[in-house]
Amino acid sequence: SNILMAKHDLDGAEMMQLRALMTMQKVLGPLHPQIAISCGKLGGILQDKGKFHRAKRFFQCSIRINEKILGPTHPETIKAQQKLQQMSEATNQETAIRLIIEQLDTDRTGRISMTKFTDIIKTMDPSLDSSMIGSLTGISTDGTANITDLVYCIFDPLIEQ
After folding, report:
1. pTM for this one?
2. Would you give the distance in Å from CA 45 to the centre of its chain?
């Protein structure tokens, strides 16, 4: 599947990795480190294809196997957890960007209601409360914010990396 991934053949890579996973499960059984690795690879392929729900399930499978076999503090377990976390963060950011684009397409004023602004930011980080989000931008007297402020809130963490 690595060769197919390098050729950007995600459909072929997905099929190849699924076949490899099924074969390995037959030979090695369901609780083997290679099964965890294979689940993680398949999760990565599915993530690249935009199939985030399925990718999440395979990343979680990889984590469960690693925790049972290697323990929760093993580097492979932590690596699998980090992959899942990174995918979740990327998915949240993609959702926020899509919502901004939809807002720009429907409202040509360049303004956005604070409620909508808060909803979009919360897709990226659900732990933020409204007062924290309000401090990210200048709110006008009519309760709206500039859409560009929203865009900066989304891209600032990327720029800082």
Report:
1. 0.60
2. 13
At 74, list the tokens: 């093993």
The rounded distance, in Å, linking the Cα atoms of 74 and 67 is 8
C-alpha–C-alpha distance, residues 36 and 58, integer Å: 9
* Residue-wise DSSP of 25-85: HHHH-SS-HHHHHHHHHHHHHHHHTT-HHHHHHHHHHHHHHHHHHT-TTSHHHHHHHHHHH
| pLDDT tens readout for residues 10-19 | 888 888 998 9
Alpha-carbon torsion 44, 15, 53, 153, what sign? positive
Q: Fill in the amino acid letter for 128.
A: L
Calpha distance 16→85 (Å, rounded): 25
pLDDT tens across 101-151, in order? 666 555 556 666 666 766 776 666 666 665 555 555 555 555 565 555 666
Is residue 24 within 8 Å of residue 34, measured between CB atoms?
Answer: yes
**Euclidean distance between CA atoms 14 and 41, whole angstroms:** 9
Supply φ then ψ for residue 149, to 5 degrees.
-60, -40
